[in-house]
């Protein structure tokens, strides 16, 4: 690539990116240093020393269930999946360049909707915002997002990737390309393009 | 008379074949012999020593090598075309030098030494190909001889110098021997004085040496050469020209590095230090080193971090080592400062900044009087301007502190102007970060003062130090008051909290300041810098901040408010330790808040009680003040308050969680005070007064009386006494609380009405907290203390010695008589103490017959407790009793256990049998960690056979996990006895015999359900063992794991199977190769949503229990996905590709699993399988 489309984009720092909102962890001051020991659940009330009916213990119950709790795939999870994709031009992620933004991810039906089962068709719409309106790589970025989501989501998810309205001078063209299954499949056959995509997805955990 | 020629010839010829013969000889004779060459040399030396003088042995010995020497019938005579025999000649000379190694230092006469010196010395000139190494080694040896004349050293050096350019062509090893010869000569005091006498200040010999060694690059040689140069500069008195010459030689090496490929065994740091030694060798170098080093530093961009640090360390070493700093260091102080200040001011790399600060500090240490004043003034002048700039404040602060912390004098000169400027800038800060940096500088200065004030100072210095005290006394009002008061306001912002978090640290350090004049004053109050009322005001404000952050805690907690709370707590603790009088009003103030919270019973009351109680406990008890008894007073004050509040809350029927909070605070106070006492040396064998209750009640009256003033400890109590009293007072409170929790009922005890009427879960927790408190106190007692206090009796009467009579040792005890202490709900209290008892104290329980009665009752009783918690606690009690005493020697109990084993194994039984069996399992868990000999065979048999029971096998096989699983009462910290190889023994006794049966290889066990039980049992045992124990049977265990997972599908058994499977695959993946298809199938089944098809023969009870267990479902999914994700890494793709399409389909579906962590693992596994080709 001889010249860069956008040589000087705005880059966000990692702390500015949206993350799953967690409550501030409990304070661990010097006065509280023995709290964990004092309120620890006694060993006789944990498996295998107690059977079946595990007795409840006031303090430890709060964080016990969280690991096994059901949490549907939400916008933040989609964001976490695609915001780490590298930009084809710059060594930073799409999230840091604000190409991918949390408010531009839409899931229908919304997560937590009652009655949604593993066989319900769910549509994920991601609107990509190129850093400049004439970005020639918008289609590549869109394709990267699409490939990443296809690799990560279960089969009942339908993925739609579009350019955000008015963010690109030729957004209808780009959208058409990204929506065309045949063209997407053909693009993935192209070795050069495949190489670019692999490089972009290398940084995804 | 020996033939030296013959010996020399043998030496020269003894080479390759010599090694073989020597090996053969060594093998034949069976004892280690020296190699023939060494033997020849030794023989020669012996001959030289023993031969009669008139036969002139030395001359004959030297002549022995004549045949190999040039000019004999050797190389030159054989014609010009032939190459001389260098190797032979080198070996011949080596023969001479090696012989010298074995020669005593007194053998050679002066004339002989002289002859040898000229002989070997000539070699440097005439034979630089074969003779240098041997000559240098020989001369090194000769210079150690008694008859060596120091005057010959000069000759040797001159001879060496004749090597000239040939020197650099020698091998490194040869050069090293020459350098070592030079070092031994030049560092020899006699030689040194001779050389100085001969050459004077011009040191001409050194000129030649410098020319000779100019191009040395080998690190090992350089180590010696630098040593020589450093010694020369240090001990000789060379002229300034010579000094310059030498300096020019070693400066060329600076900065020195070592090629990464160097195999010399010398580290770059050693080499750097050796070179640094040259720089620091004499103060006469000062005019050369400082300009040179600063010049190197100012080269700019080209200087790497490592080089910069090296330069700075060298500057520091020079400034530290040079004598007469007024003349040597002072002239360069200004240039050093102006070069170095930017390293800190604009520096980014912490290593360089630290090295720079060290240099600047050492300058202040070395300078005195006016010079120091000038330096301090320069530093202050340059830095204070930067304090007004938010960007440079922090570096300016570091510069200031590094210099003023050097000595009390520097502090006196700089502290006052620095503080004035900090204050000035705090009035007009450029932003919250700027204020924070300024406050940090002040805080560090206060900490510095605290350190300096206790250093040794002369009277003059101390009075100067005291003169600036006024600068500090006004600091609170001038600086800290505003940010602290701002933080107390409810509307304080994030930035206010951040700033206050910095300010409280300074305020805390301010309270701890000692007055400069009075470090020796006995009165603690008079030795403080601030007056008492000011300290109290500061402590009060700190307390208000904590109160305010606690109110905020529920609504708008931020990281800044959390940081503020923690920092304020630390500052308050420090302040109270220093100014102890502040503690009483704080406890009073805290208690008022706690009481009103307790009475209102609002949702926040529990957190109020807990946070303030813990705070007061930490502040007053976590460190002993200067007078240790004051610490004990604090401890009594807070524990009594918490105890009385707990009693009041029980009487007022406050909620269970409030009572728990008070108990927790009480325990926290005890734990904190234990930390404070941890530095006290204890004589472990001291016995305590067995009449401790009356003694404590007498010495500390009114401990449980709400109206009595808190008792005070004797002011002069020693630290040891403080510790003992602390433990006994704690025990006293435990006793009161235990009495409160129980009531007598006939000859036994039961839970008091107040506890019995509480909701079950809450009362369990409260009892556990009480038990934990008792356990902690008992745990702190040494064995002698436990025995002298009869701690074992606490278990029996739970501190109600009036109601329960303890049986005398040797009397017969009815089993049912004592079982209440383990089988009723108050067994949690028993357990707390028992867990902390040492084995010797547990032995007393056996002595009284109580332990036996508990054990017998629980293994014979069918009745299971109505309350499940009570049953679980009983198991833990049994485990402890079986572990801390040699149960196998208590025959009556063992007999009954063995009988019960027979009954259980014979009986197709009911719930009662299950209870009994579980009790025996608990006993086994304790006993088998300590003993697995003959007496335990009955127990082991039960454990082995129990899975075969058709009725109970399913439950019992799962309970086998109890025997191996780690549990807290069985840790060494709780005085349990754990043998090193117990787990290995258990594996061979239990799991190994079960393995073939589980796999159906034993014809006696063919029932599939029983095989399944045995399989589950094996997995439960193996689950907690390291792989190395079952490595030999890994394949069989792998098959067992597959069998269980295939049969059951999901639930805790499958989780255990998958864990074991994962362990085996991680440690020895090859074992899984032949089972790969099955492994993939069971893992896929574990995370797939498809229902599991149970075999018809499997009773429904196996799967029904686990169907709703969400936790184990998620756990098995995770374990299965981890295995799946790892398979592509462990196995070649050809094994996996056939199943890839199906696996990928399932993994794709698993990416939609409701549990987030499972989805994450599924995606990772999917990516790993996608890469298979």
TrEMBL record, chain A:
InterPro entries: FSCA_dom_sf, MIP18. GO terms for biological process: protein maturation. It comes from the Eukaryota. Belongs to the MIP18 family. This is MIP18 family-like domain-containing protein. It comes from Emericellopsis atlantica.
UniProtKB/TrEMBL annotation, chain B:
The keyword Cell inner membrane does not apply. It comes from the Eukaryota. Residues 762-1039 form the MMS19 C-terminal domain. One of its GO terms (cellular component) is nucleus. It is found in: Nucleus. Belongs to the MET18/MMS19 family. This is MMS19 nucleotide excision repair protein.
